[in-house]
Amino acid sequence: MRKLCPNIDKEDGLETVLEVPIPEEMFSSMGSNPQLRLQNMLTWMRAQTSDKWSQPAITGRINELRFLLYLVGSPLIPLQVQLGHSVHKPVKDSSIQASTAKYIVQQYIAAMGGPTALNAVHSMCVTGQVKIKATEFHQSDQSKNVKSSDEAGGFVLWQKDPDLWCLELVVSGCKVVCGSNGNLSWRLSSNQLSPVTTGPPRPLRRFLQGLDPRSTANLFLDATCIGEKIIGNIDCFILKLETSPAIREAQSGPNYEIIHHTIWGYFCQRSGLMIQFEDSRLLSMKTKDDNEVFWETSTESIMEDYKYVDGVNIAHGGRTRVTVFRYGERSANHKREIEERWKIEEVDFNVWGLSAVHFTPPTTDVKM
């Protein structure tokens, strides 16, 4: 991945460090020769202004990218992950299904490095690259029109606790920054003219895709084991977790309501690793005309290429598939499918000097 941008104003000047490393593929698509690519990159970096994004052709393109980045690149989970370092709950007075789930979680903890290694992690920084492709919205019974090219990009992810995190994601020239400071979660894109979008503190789904084993274990401690399933010729146990009505109400907003949210984890019976992570959510939203539109989102992530980093087993690659249905009183039954492939380039634990100040939401006049 490209981390530096040469100084084209001064040949002998210091290179510019990119805030978010980008894949070489994304850099190559910026022009036919190195000089043009560098010029286009610099132009893009300087052109994050409202007058540029107000042009209709550019606005449509960026809004499309922002939709993809919000839905598959930086989705949040409407659950509170347990704080602290405890990854154990007693099985006393638990049902057989709940006790089995707790046993499976303990096997997962051992497979990810054990409680000592997991509890030694107090913060992390992750860099990686993504490729996203999607279909257009279409009637659910019609054939889908898949876009021919992938949208490529990179990201930097910081975390200090489950409720203290920040993600910077750049894909095809569109940048999204989102995070949580422990009191609220926030989100902002490079072309967003409205104020920063805020909500209740929630974990980033990407952490549960093999990056944060402790949060994953704490999440599934309250699950139940509902059976077995073969995933890619691998025998897996299935753990299921339903979001409680109280949590759904707390995570809902003035213009939308979370009707249901269910999470599944598929854990390999032999290795103990989580092979697949799924969640399904149904939201009801009010339109400007006071009509009700429903959005049903089903997300399935496959984790691959597990490698140890400082004694912690981290998934260094995988793919996520998202299926979105939109329907309601005046909205046709539309369907869209999105796929993201990701690769982790670097993982660093216990980042020196990282404090809560680094997760403060940006002001509305911040330049990205």
Description:
The chain is of the alpha+beta class and 368 residues long. It folds into two domains: 2-46, no CATH class; 77-120 and 130-145 and 207-359, no CATH class. 21% of the residues lie in helices and 42% in strands. It is built from eight helices and 16 strands. Strands 3, 4, 5, 6, 7, 8, 9, 10, 11, 12, 13, 14, 15 and 16 form a 14-stranded antiparallel β-sheet that branches. Strands 1-2 form a two-stranded antiparallel ribbon. A hairpin with a 2-residue loop joins strand 6 and strand 7. The chain starts with a strand and ends in a 19-residue tail after the last strand. The model has no long low-confidence stretch (mean pLDDT 81). InterPro entries: DUF620.
Keywords, please?
single chain, 368 residues, alpha+beta, 14-stranded antiparallel β-sheet, two-stranded antiparallel ribbon, 8 helices, 42% strand, DUF620 domain-containing protein, DUF620
